[in-house]
Amino acid sequence: MASDRPPNREDAGGRGSTSRDSDRPPNRGDAGGRGSTSRDLDRPKDRDDAGGRGETLKQTPNFHALLIGIDFYFPHKLSDGSYYKSLGGCVRDINHVEAFLKNRLQVPQTQILKLTASNVEGSTKPSEPKELWPTYENMVAKFKEVTEKAQPQDQVYIHYSGHGGRAPTTSPKLKGEDGIDQSLVPTDIGNPETRYLRDLELARLLENMVDKGLVVTVALDSCHSGGAARNIGDDCDIRRSETGVVDTTPRPTDSLVASEDELAQTWESLAQNNQNTRNITSSGWLPEPKGYTLLAACRENESAYETDFDGERHGALTYWMLRSLEKFGTGVSAKTLHNRVFAKVHTQFEKQTPMLQGESDRSFFGNNLVSPQFTVPVIQVDLEENQVQLNAGQAHGLRKGAEFAIYPLGTADFTQTNQRLALVKITQRGAVHSWATITQMQGENKIEDIQDGAPALLLSPSVKLVRKIRLLSPEEQNQPSGIDYKVALQAIESAMPEGKGWVELVSGDETADYQVSINKLGEYEILDRAGIPIANLRPALEVSNPNAAISVVKRLVHLSKYHANIDLDNHDPMSPLKGKIEVELFRLPDDFEPGDPEEFIRFNDSGNVPTLDVGQFAYLYIRNKSSLPLNITVLAIQPDWSIKKLYPTGVAFQTVGSGKEVKWRIKTSLPNGYQEGTDILKVFATIDGTSFDWLELPALDKPIQPKNAGKATTPLAKFLAKFLASEEAPPTKNVNSAAYASEEWTTEQITLVVKKGFNNG
Fold first, then answer.
1. Tens digit of pLDDT for each residue in 326-377?
2. Domain 2-22+576-760 fold
3. In the chain, which end has fewer C-beta atoms inside a 10 angstrom radius, N or C?
4. Cross-strand pairs, 515
């Protein structure tokens, strides 16, 4: 992808760095007031996003939640002999969502309805009381209960983590004789008298909420795709039946939700803009929603994975949704949230594309809710062990590895990042108290400066630099003839020193980021953690090539740096530049040629990934919403595994004045031989002019040129050079950018799919 003309500088201001008075206070925009005190979680105080003014925190009585998580599935067999495997992360998903709602939105416990089925080793049933099991009857009853309790204009959040299923439709007149109902799978689906909660019923339950005037958001962390998974291993599970089969087990067809005619009426109303009532949207769940927002884990033909994050099993969608809400705050738009969740999930799982339907421009939770920053007090300082004890733990949704910034006792304004004493990371998590190791002291401070009661501010997850590799034996039917795959995999292990510390083999029960195996053709394959071959790694590397193993390791290093750049973000929730650039992509008419009048057309993808044909034109729109001029640079992260600066041309950055905007026209392209590819346009905005040459990568298999870190002058450039541009091993396996000039930069990114022949499809 490339710019097709010199950048449009109208309204963009001059080039070059803006001078910056070192005494000038940082731009705080909407960062909030001063005068609040640090907040003990057991005695919350009301604050706006910056710390507020010390008012008593009010609960949110107009917010209701229905949370359903199913790990335990009673033993059973479906019509083809497969079954729904018990899971390990769904109840944890729900518990963490509940903790987030209670601690960040102050939703009263009485406003949260929860159905869970925990999978306790050795148990023959869920550990919860039977009336709290997610059976069909209980799920329908809870949907009706939350609809009854909530009043018009109240907000309702629904989160489901568990298996998705498929069964022959109960409405053949509506969907056809061979029609399929997509469904939520109850814990007791092993009983042939148990019914699925079908898509037609879900549509009706949600319509009842909308008709009452409720503001509804739904997240479904499950899938229902067909086809067997390959090489999934122990690192992941898929949230559907083992084969994705359509379950033809005879089951009751009557509904506890509504009559057959009422269900059909709702479905036809939702599907009226589709080609037919069988053509559901690409998420596979419902026709285009009306009056609510739906975040689904994947496309209809993909899988929703659960895997280990920070040593605990979670659904990928739920994990990154919560982490992104920690970063953006609860007032984030559904579209912005989806963009980040998509980027995080899709880079880990090749065949999982989170989908957004419905009202994508409104706040994810319905209204512009403002939540206090998540701060907890230090309750003990252990000088000898270089650690502190924090008054928070598993009950608050904390994960092992969570990072905090500690401020001086009595700090009121958390935007004063230069006042931070230290960064710490949770290493021992308890139920309500946790120990955190001090990872870095800030400035000239010493551990003795940390006092009991000092506030600790939760930071966003750090960037993983060193990636873990698993060597995976090929399945028996895929073993190549005439090749000893064990010797071939041993060659990879022997070549690992060529990775110079950027990649390491897994040990014990560690979760792998990439897997290496051998296919039936005798070629090395690099797979994602779910066992899906990573696309567009070309040319193929034959095991018989004496340099193949070294080439594989070098590719793994390239992928590690590539994905680290995608993950790069400002992890500081108090950065004054947070949310201060607005980035959007517009397309031009399909027949547009340079010189024609320019008509900007919004993508109608309802928050999903924009798709364009090769040679099509689009505009990237960047607006500076801060009170300071910002320096803009755009990197193109491309499907040939290269990263290049595309905007502006000829200079390191383009200065855009406060309240001004810049529009950059692009023309889509694909590397030779590619039929489809994904581009990520990553936009950086800085106060001091900074070069982002440190992040550039050549195409795959091209030598990565060493960069002279001594040329880095600004704090941000020094951070990029030290951690992301090093040829040798990075100084740490993970890095949190909150420690490095976080008040001076921000970044946003947009994902775009380029598909040859898309407009002819």
1. 877 788 888 888 888 988 898 888 888 898 888 877 888 866 544 556 788 8
2. Immunoglobulin-like (2.60.40)
3. C
4. 470, 527
Give me the residue spans of the domains in the chain: 2-22+576-760, 63-358, 373-460, 467-565
**pLDDT given at position 38:** 34
Give the 3-state secondary structure of residue 515. strand
Sheet holding 63-70: strands in order across? 112-117, 63-70, 155-161, 215-221, 292-296, 355-358
Give the burial string for 164-175 (b: 16+ CB within 10 Å, else e).
bbbbbbbbeebb
User: How far apart (Å, rounded) are the C-alpha atoms in residues 483 and 485?
Assistant: 6
Neighbouring residues of 295: CB distance < 8 A, sequence distance ≥ 6: 217, 218, 219, 220, 317, 321, 334, 337, 338, 341, 354, 355, 356, 364
Among 431, 420, 418, residue whose Cα is nearest residue 375: 420
Does the model's pTM come out above 0.70?
Answer: yes
What would the two tokens of residue 404 be? 């905090």
d(CA 242, CA 18): 58
Classify 145 in phi/psi space as left (phi over 0), alpha (psi -120 to 50) or beta: alpha
Rg, C-alpha atoms of the chain: 26
CATH of domain 467-565: 3.40.50
| First CA to last CA distance, the chain | 21
Q: How many CB atoms lie within 10 A of CB 383?
A: 11
Its CATH architecture, for the domain 373-460, is Beta Barrel (2.40)
What span, in angstroms and rounded, lies between the C-alpha atoms of 241 and 246? 9
Q: What pLDDT digit, counting tens, does each position of 424-468 carry?
A: 999 998 888 899 999 989 889 999 999 988 999 888 777 888 899
